[in-house]
Amino acid sequence: MTTTRATVTLLPDPERRRRRYTIISVDDHLCEPSHMFEGRLPRRFSDRTPRVVETDDGAEAWLFEDTLMPQVGFNAAAGRPPAEVVSRDPIRFSEMRRSAYEVHARVADMDLDGVYASLCFPSYLAGFGGVRLQTTSADTDFSLALVRAWNDWMIEEWAGSYPERMIPMQLAWLHDPDLAASEIRRNADRGFRAVTFPESPHQAGFPSLHSGYWDPFVAACAETGTVINVHTGSAGKLPESAPDAPADVTSALFGAGYALTTTVDWLFSRYAMKHPEIKISISEGGIGWVPSLLDRLEHHYRKQGDRRGTWVGSELSAAELLQRNFWFCLVDEPSAMVHLDRIGVENILFETDFPHNDSSWPDSQELFHKHMAAKDDHTVRRISWQNAAELFGHPVPLAVQLDPDAY
Dihedral (C-alpha) 49, 173, 351, 362: value to the nearest 10 degrees? Predict the structure, then answer.
């Protein structure tokens, strides 16, 4: 028996927004297209290739081994009336903006929004940190083939079609840190400058950041300049409070609720001390909590004395390492604007979160202007594009730096 599905409305294309700023967004998402794995898996896996099927309720879903993943367009809410948007609503590709899964349409929507370049995370099939693609099947050879195919598609089709507009980001291999390191080096040679990694790997069934397991992987990232991008929710577990709390408690906690814990975990793993070149970007966590963390770290340092505990042997304090090796993503936080200097304007990036329901699209230019209209040119330039361009090694042409309408 089939069920009646809710109405889905796609609004007309918005008008092209006025461009005041050159913007790079370091946290957007893509929905894996149905052809992603076609021709990219070894022949021995051809009969196991994940594919999109129609479900009894008229939706589309990925069939992966014997698992049905109904959220084809996980939170692909851009261009839909807010009243219709339901988190995790199973939908069809035809019920999303094509830019959710098709790169040519994505660049067109970036043009409407005034975003020059974008860094895109996976969606439901892979998981924000690639965990789901590697834990659904017990066959790690198959999982590795899927991860490599996902990365091939990213560098060849998504980023490869518009290398000046798309910053390529890979999935990390999680089951073997030595192989993971080899993949980082191989992919760096192919043009990757970023990797998505689960925020708390122990929550996804892998060793913790403090175990030493990840040492080869982190060393390879430091060696190649590959930025480790840690997205809230990427370990497959969301913030929670009481068992009987309302469902939207998760939305209130999402971001800062996890980003603070994740950042402290990464900081106290000592990787920033062992590898001074390591670069860690905390995605979709906001920035408003960072000054409080800096205050706490400095207070703890004053009380504990010189380089005690975790920081024995470190030339820098925990707070200094945080400001040297970590970057944080600005979403929509008016109250945080008075703390930019405390955080460090060189440590702040901007994101639009397209096509999720939190996205600022198609009004990202206006949102950025609301935050930055009163700021000096140096601050605006650093946060709008320069920090991201330097961090990810993604140069912006001089003409575009000077004139957002130049592309």
Answer: -10
Structural domain contains residue 302: yes
Residue position matching structure tokens 């089939």 = 2
The CATH code of the domain that includes 181 is: 3.20.20.140
* Beta partners for residue 62, in sequence order: 52, 69
SS3 173: coil
Q: How many CB atoms lie within 10 A of CB 247?
A: 7
Q: 356 pairs with which residues across the strands? A: none
**Quick one: which of 185, 20, 31, 183 has its CA closest to 115?**
20
Domain total of the chain: 1
**Three-state DSSP class for residue 300:** helix
This prediction has a pTM of: 0.95
Written as six digits, the tokens of 203 are 């929550």
Q: Report pLDDT digits (tens) over 56-93.
A: 888 999 999 999 987 788 789 999 988 887 655 668 99
Q: Kindly state the tokens that stand for 53.
A: 């099927």
46-49, Cβ contacts within 8 angstroms, sequence gap of 24 or more: 48/142
Q: Is residue 3 part of a domain?
A: no
Phi, psi values for residue 122, rounded to 5°:
-65, 175
